[in-house]
Design brief:
mainly alpha
């Protein structure tokens, strides 16, 4: 009898096993909602599925009576804009500083210790400082994402560059390559797919920092709307918003995974790409 570690599910079994946890979660929610609503029809903690559908329709398809805007899409665009800028800046900093620390001894000696200490500071603890320094506008929200994500990307890229075979650097120098040519022709091509891995791993943290900043000081955004509606216990809207954030985060992760596979098939083929 084959060991359990060697048994692999077929295609149909994989689909069923993947869907099973979602079905169980929905079933548990349906049972819990039914029990609470049976005791108190006005209970707001676990709204029924029709109530959730009504909340989705009101916020995703019907214009707001006060502003005339469809709130879900306004909030989504606001949050995605902040997230995109924050991740873009963090990625650029992570790539530049990470390659410097991983490749250049002087940069490693001067920045590695400082970066290690900086990365240990809880990003949410500096949020009040960011609001004081940058104000309550868009910049402070973007800076929180950068402060929380960039140090992680820098350290990850530095580690990945440090793991590159020394023989490659030596051979490039033997052939007369300058430092810039070593970076662009040896280091960067091997760093890009690893950087995508690091960005994928940082997506959850980036969303956390974004939601936290929007919850405290914003006039639009997914986090702003969730914390605004909590005052009214509007779980019929809060839960769909949370589900929508999850869908967006999963979509970003999937898009990055596809980009990595198509742009760097050699890396995916090594089995080192993270799932």
């Amino acid at each position: 009898m084959p060991r359990l570690v060697n048994r692999r599910p077929g295609r149909a079994a994989r689909v069923i096993l993947a869907a099973l946890p979602f079905a169980l979660a929905l079933g548990a929610y349906a049972i819990g909602s039914h029990l609470r609503l049976s005791e108190n029809p006005n209970d707001k903690l676990l709204p029924s599925f029709p109530a959730l559908a009504d909340g989705i329709v009101r916020f995703a398809f019907e214009p707001d009576r006060r502003t005339g805007e469809i709130l879900l899409w306004v909030d989504t665009l606001a949050s995605l804009g902040r997230l995109a800028i924050g991740l873009a800046v963090s990625t650029a900093l992570g790539l530049a500083v990470g390659i410097g620390i991983g490749l250049l001894p002087y940069a490693r000696a001067s920045l590695a210790s400082f970066l290690a200490v900086l990365s240990m500071i809880p990003p949410l603890s500096v949020l009040p400082i960011l609001f004081i320094v940058f104000g309550l506008g868009e910049l402070s929200k973007v800076m929180l994402i950068v402060f929380g994500v960039a140090p992680f990307l820098m350290r990850d890229v530095a580690l990945r560059v440090g793991e590159l075979p020394t023989e490659q650097i030596v051979k490039a120098q033997t052939l007369g390559a300058s430092t810039w040519q070593i970076i662009t022709r040896v280091v960067l091509p091997q760093t890009w797919p690893r950087l995508i891995d690091a960005v994928r791993l940082s997506l959850g943290a980036a969303w956390l920092f974004l939601i936290a900043a929007e919850a405290i000081a914003a006039e639009s955004g997914l986090g702003y709307r969730i914390f605004l509606l909590r005052r009214y216990l509007a779980m019929d809207v809060i839960l769909p918003y949370v589900a929508w954030i999850t869908v967006l985060a999963f979509t970003f992760d999937w898009a990055l995974r596809v980009l990595q596979t198509r742009a760097f098939p050699w890396f995916a083929g090594t089995g080192r790409g993270r799932p």
